[in-house]
Design goal:
This protein is α+β, with helices and mostly antiparallel strands. The protein contains two helices and three strands, in the order ββαβα. The chain has one domain. 24% of the residues lie in helices and 19% in strands. The longest helix is centred in the middle third of the chain and has 11 residues.
Length: 75
């Protein structure tokens, strides 16, 4: 990744999570990618929301595609 932002941002437009990206906590489809100084973490919407408060203080970037769940449910 060529540029890092400081703090938590809502969406990195250049990256899209796929069905192959899995939550590091439970194995469900990942909709959230968190970039930390030590690497990346992938989370489903549930675990991303659960850990957001703890991780946001040290996250370099927060990529959240959980809004896709609402779009898929509306179909």
């Amino acid at each position: 990744m060529s540029q890092m932002t400081t703090g938590v941002t809502d969406l990195d437009e250049g990256y899209v999570l796929t069905a192959l990206d899995r939550c590091d906590s439970c194995g469900a489809q990942a909709y959230i990618r968190v970039t930390m100084a030590s690497g990346e973490l992938l989370f489903c919407a549930h675990h991303g929301a659960q850990f957001k408060d703890k991780l946001s203080a040290t996250a370099l970037h927060w990529h959240d595609e959980s809004s896709r769940l609402l779009a898929e449910a509306a179909r």
